[in-house]
Amino acid sequence: EEREPIEEARPKTPVKPMTATEVKVNVSIPEAAERAAATGADGVGLLRMEHMILSTNKTPERYIEDHGAKAYVEEIVQGARSVADEFYPRPVRLRTLDAPTDEFRQLEGGEDEPHEHNPMLGYRGIRRSLDRPDVFKHELEAFSRLYEMGYDNVEIMFPLVNDADDVARARTLLEEAGVDPEKRTWGVMIETPSSALVVEDIVQEGVDFVSFGTNDLTQYTLAVDRNNENVADRFDELHPAVLKLIGNVVETCREHDVKTSICGQAASKPDMVDFLVEEGVSSISANIDAVRDVQHEVKRKEQRLLLDSVR
Ligand code: PEP
Ligand code: MG
């Protein structure tokens, strides 16, 4: 009997180290889904909805005006399902729209954007969404459609919440769009110091998870603009103040059985990985090119902790 050539018998996905902490991947554009899935990541920790909209070169408002709300929903559904397909049944966390007004201004319809002195402290993320429920509801309908189509691996994430009230209002709109928050996995980003400080109240709203957006959490905690090169040397995701907020949130969430994760750029830094594994974070989501290194760093750190515990 002939044997299979060895090359053929090799698994397609690289052998990844087994770890207790999940290692996921961030997907910026749906086109990257296949490459992302091939990393062997445990799921997608962040899929940003804005690329599905911004790639049409229109603001959401202009898109809906020109093509109708149904087409807007479809744009999101098609973008999300290509990733959800690639990863199924691994979970894919889809985040509702979060682009600042200066980014929207570049697009068709951008002339209608409010002028803001400081867009990063302004009208973005859940703030804009809650203020414009007529647009937001279509993003939420996209989730409803995805679940109808059988993509039960899709999870819902809300950006830039400040407090329990933001979360409660988003949850209500989600229900109004036909999604049962009790049946689906949903959560919020922790990226303002405020949300970290009142996380005890936020978990009471029934979130399944929180995810640290360390790009913003660092910017707002240290008052260092993430896009300002004059203060770039002060942008430090490992600053004790940032780590203190993260550590406190992880502890509170553990008490309430709420999962914690990170999807900011800092997730690919070994020192951050070590810190998070030691704190007991549930998952770490890194960029495609960093996933493999993060998998190995998590493994190393978990083994070290295990050895320390039996010593
Ligand atoms: C973050 O703030 O860390 C994050 C992941 O969100 P974004 O970079 O899209 O603001
Ligand atoms: Mg952010």
Written description of the protein model:
There is one protein chain. By secondary structure, this protein is α/β, with parallel strands linked by helices. It contains 15 helices and eight strands. It has an eight-stranded parallel β-barrel, surrounded by four helices. Strand 7, helix 14 (270-279) and strand 8 (283-286) form a beta-alpha-beta unit. Helix 4 (60-67) packs across helix 5 (69-87), helix 5 (69-87) packs across helix 8 and helix 14 (270-279) packs across helix 15 (291-310). It is globular, with a radius of gyration of 20 Å. It starts with 5 loop residues before the first helix and ends with a helix. The structure holds phosphoenolpyruvate and magnesium ion. Residues 46, 48, 98, 191, 213-216, 263-264 line the site of phosphoenolpyruvate.
Break the fold down into its secondary structure elements and pairings:
Layout: H1 6-9, E1 22-27, H2 33-37, E2 44-48, H3 50-54, H4 60-67, H5 69-87, E3 92-95, H6 101-104, H7 126-131, H8 133-148, E4 154-158, H9 164-176, E5 186-190, H10 193-197, H11 199-203, E6 209-212, H12 214-222, H13 240-255, E7 259-262, H14 270-279, E8 283-286, H15 291-310
Parallel strand pairs: 1-2, 1-8, 2-3, 3-4, 4-5, 5-6, 6-7, 7-8
The structure holds phosphoenolpyruvate (PEP) and magnesium ion.
